[in-house]
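Form 7-S
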Amino acid sequence: MADDKKPILRREEYRAQQAAQRKKQHHFRKQKEPVVVEVPDDVDVQVIAEKTPNASSEKTAQDKMISGSIWMTAGSVFSRVLGAIYIIPWLIWMGSNGNLANALYAKAYQVYSIFLVISTAGVPGAISKQVAHYNALDEYEVGQRLYRHGLVMMTLMGIISMLIMYFGAPVFAVGSPQLTMIFRALSWALLIIPILSITRGFFQGYSEMAPSALSQFIEQVARVVYMLVTCYLIMKVFKGSYVDAVAQSTFAAFIGASAGLLLLIFYYLKHLNYYVGVVQHSKHQLKISTNQILWSIIQQAIPYIIMDAGISIFYLVDQYTFNPIMLTIHHFSKDTLDSLFALFAFNANKLIMIIVSLATAMAITATPLLSAAYTRNNTKVIGKQVNDMLQLFFFVMVPAAIGLSAVADPLYTIFYGRGPVGIAVLKLSAYVAIILGLYTVMAAILQALYQNRKAIWCLVVGFVVKIALQYPCIHLFQVYGPMIATALGFIVASTLMLRAVIHTYHINMMQTMKRLLVIVIFSALMFIVAWGSIKIMQLFLNPNSRLNAMITIIISVVLGALVYIYCVLKTRLADKILGAKVARLRHLLRIS
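Output:
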């Protein structure tokens, strides 16, 4: 059987061989010959995967998780930060209509996000998982066929979704001509984003996170540039309507998606020889028809639709219930209610999604790795990877959220101007971000382990909790109510998901819980330092000034970050979670 088996080439080996052929005059480091393992016909593929050098060890999986998370985190954070920074000039140019523009933007995006999830049909996540699954079996050709057929499906889904959103805009806008215009401007992006998303999923299936991260950044740059240019021209040069400016700002999603897709196409064509090469060295033992491939995509995509839409569905409940419930408490005008809605649905949400994107990046990285381990039926590796994933999540997310809460005062002032209610909403939202992030990671873990029904059931239970608590929470806590109901709903959902994983794979969470406790303690110390430095500086600097707020936040963030970094390096906690390479940083900082 093994005599006619073609060798399995690693990506680095294949590239080196190609480079050697093109540039024979250069000296390259000698490549190791791929090893072919002789196995009898009755040996399961798991044995092959575990005994060949191509199989990933636990350490390699952890390295991939960390490096992949770094790439995806960098791309997500930079794009989110850029997507938040534009708010400063954007709101200045909007003038007195700033909060109304924010509310209009937020309402349009909540509905659009649901359409976005449906139009992508959960395929990017499914493609990532399935490509990794077939790659682990050395069936690269099947994974690439999966991508090609999925690409056709996504193109059709994008066209259908765009047409529904464009012509159904008056219905979704509940008769509002302003929202109708915004929905139609947004609908054009649905033609591009499904193709962009599935292509990212293809690269992620190969654990190639750099293309996705770079395309995210380029997408955001193009989007923000178009937004700011059109907003300035409409509001300042032509003295136009803020509604027209918002419409062009939402159409920028189409511009950004087009730029991101062009980058991915360039990357694919540049490495086309590699993708052709791995197909040639596939086993070609799996015979799967086109119909089977399409059905496989649909089966895996439906749960991703539901889970990816989870947060958006919770926010959609807020959009359609906040104003009616608030009117039963106070007789506020529509503009006042829209301004209050903007405080948590846009202003705070725009900033906390920067740190939620950290969890999203980790989830994207974890999916193909866990799927590969599941394919090999290696429960020990699965248990370790789940623990590693959760520890990495807490290590990054907890200090980020607590730090955001500490600097909420000057941060909110920089973006939206000083406002006590807005600052308080941002502080609460920062802690809610941890819960949203945990849901994102746990949903990805369950789906990567093919526990789709359990994941959906947990989300449904959390959603029922959200609906049940929505009215009492808004009645008791008013503008803070929607966030509290959302937090409680996702706490229930995430707890049930975590319990399902622990029960199924008998994972020992004791080490993770101990390290989480240490992380919380270090984060609390960081909070005290950052918050205390802000209060001291506000005694000498006017807190209402954006410039002073910028100075304050830079100093407080640096001081707080240094405290956290020192603590995790001094106690070797960073080494245990991130790996031995952290020792270089400790040596550089001369921390013994």
